[in-house]
Specification:
This protein has about 325 residues and is an alpha+beta fold. Helices cover about 40% and strands about 30% of the residues. Strands 1, 2, 3, 4, 5, 6, 7, 8, 9, 10, 11, 12, 13 and 14 form a 14-stranded mixed sheet that branches. Helix 3 packs antiparallel against helix 10, helix 4 packs parallel to helix 5 and helix 8 packs antiparallel against helix 10. The protein starts with a strand and ends with a strand.
Length: about 325
C-alpha cells in the first residue's frame, strides 16, 4: 500500500474508495464509505494526523488522535464503532497489506483501535494473527447492526414482523388518517437543496423529545456532521428523506441513504406533540412503502442500537474492535 497525502487526497479518490466499499464483504459498507467517514473526520471527531493509504487490495483510512498521553490510531469515524478502517474486496490480501504498513509506521502510534471489523471474518482473523506476532492483541465489545430483508415487497416484509407490531401499525395508520397527516418524499441531488431540507429536519428535531433534552441532531457537533453527510449524499445521488406533514407543518422525518442495493437508515424523529399517533413506526412504514417499490433495493440496514430495531429486522451483523498495543 502507498501512503496518501491526507484526507484531501482520500476525498479526491472518494469514488474509488466507495467502489471498494460496495464490493467489500461483511463490513458496514455505507459507514465505511466517503459520505460517512470524511464528514466524521472533518466535523465529528477530535483532530488528528491522518494515516491513509491505498493499494491493489483496497484502502486503509485511519487517523492518529491523542487520547490523553496515548497516541491512538483509529478509524476516521470512531464514535459508533461502525466504520471499518480497512476497505477492499479481498479481505486477506488487504489485511496483509495493512498489517505491513501499520508495523512500518509503528513509531507514529502507541495503540491501535480498529473498529468495525466483522466478527469471524477473514479480514479480522488475518489482521489479528499478523499483528499478534508483534503486539499484544485483544478484542473490544461487539457492535450489532440490524438488517431487514425486503424480499417479497411490503407484504413480505410485514409477514416477517411480530403480530403486535403489525397491529400497532394498523392502529397508527387510522389515527394518522383521522389527524390528516400525510407523508412525502423529499430526495434531492442538489447539495444546496440538501441544506434547506436539513434545516427543516432540524426544526422537527428541536420539537422532538431528543431536541427538548438537548441530545439530538440540533446539537453540535452532530448538527454539522449530519449537514455534511446530507450534502455529500445529495451530490452522489444517495440522499433519501421522508417527511410527515400536518397542514403546512413538518412533524416527522426519516433521513437515510441508498448505497448499492441497501437502504441505510440514519436518523428519524418526530414532533413530540404528535407522539400519541405513533409517528416513529408510521414514518418507518411509509419509508418501507417507498423502498419496496424499488426492485433494486434488497435490504434495509437500520444500524445499531435501539431495542425496537429487533422487531423491524431479522438479521444481526456483528463487528468488533481490534485493539493492539506495543
Amino acid at each position: 500500500m502507498e501512503l496518501l497525502s491526507g484526507l484531501d487526497e482520500l476525498d479526491a479518490r472518494a469514488a474509488e474508495l466507495d467502489s471498494q466499499a460496495l464490493h467489500a464483504p461483511f463490513i458496514d459498507r455505507f459507514c465505511s464509505s466517503s459520505c460517512w467517514i470524511l464528514p466524521a473526520a472533518e466535523a465529528l471527531m477530535p483532530p488528528g494526523q491522518p494515516l491513509v493509504a491505498a493499494g491493489e487490495a483496497g484502502f486503509l483510512a485511519t487517523v492518529v488522535r491523542r487520547r490523553g498521553e496515548v497516541r491512538t490510531l483509529e478509524p476516521c469515524e470512531a464514535s459508533w464503532g461502525l466504520a471499518s478502517p480497512l476497505v477492499g474486496s479481498a479481505p486477506e490480501l488487504l489485511a496483509d497489506a495493512a498489517a505491513q504498513l501499520l508495523i512500518a509506521r509503528e513509531a507514529d502510534w502507541d495503540l491501535l483501535v480498529l473498529s468495525g471489523l466483522p466478527l469471524g471474518s477473514p479480514l479480522l482473523d488475518r489482521l489479528a494473527r499478523r499483528l499478534a506476532r508483534r503486539y499484544r492483541v485483544g478484542l473490544g465489545p461487539v457492535t450489532r447492526r440490524h438488517i431487514a430483508s425486503l424480499d417479497g415487497g411490503l407484504d413480505g416484509f410485514l409477514s416477517r414482523r411480530p403480530r403486535g407490531l403489525r397491529k400497532t401499525l394498523r392502529q397508527g395508520l387510522r389515527r394518522a388518517a383521522d389527524e390528516g397527516i400525510r407523508f412525502e418524499t423529499a430526495h434531492t441531488s442538489d447539495p444546496d437543496q440538501a441544506d434547506a431540507l436539513f434545516d427543516r429536519v432540524l426544526d422537527i428535531e428541536r420539537r422532538s423529545w431528543k431536541g427538548q433534552a438537548g441530545v439530538g441532531l440540533a446539537e453540535e457537533p452532530m448538527r454539522e456532521f449530519y449537514r455534511r453527510v446530507s450534502r455529500r449524499l445529495a451530490a452522489s445521488g444517495q440522499h433519501r428523506l421522508l417527511l410527515a406533514r400536518h397542514g403546512d407543518d413538518d412533524i416527522a422525518f426519516v433521513l437515510g441513504a441508498v448505497f448499492g442495493n441497501t437502504y441505510r437508515g440514519l436518523q428519524f424523529s418526530f414532533d413530540e406533540r404528535f407522539a400519541r399517533v405513533g409517528l416513529g413506526n408510521l414514518a418507518q412504514y411509509h419509508q418501507l412503502l417507498e423502498l419496496t417499490s424499488d426492485a433494486s433495493i434488497a435490504s434495509y440496514d437500520l444500524g445499531t442500537g435501539g431495542e425496537y430495531k429487533a422487531d423491524w429486522a431479522e438479521d444481526g451483523w456483528d463487528s468488533v474492535c481490534l485493539v493492539a498495543a506495543r
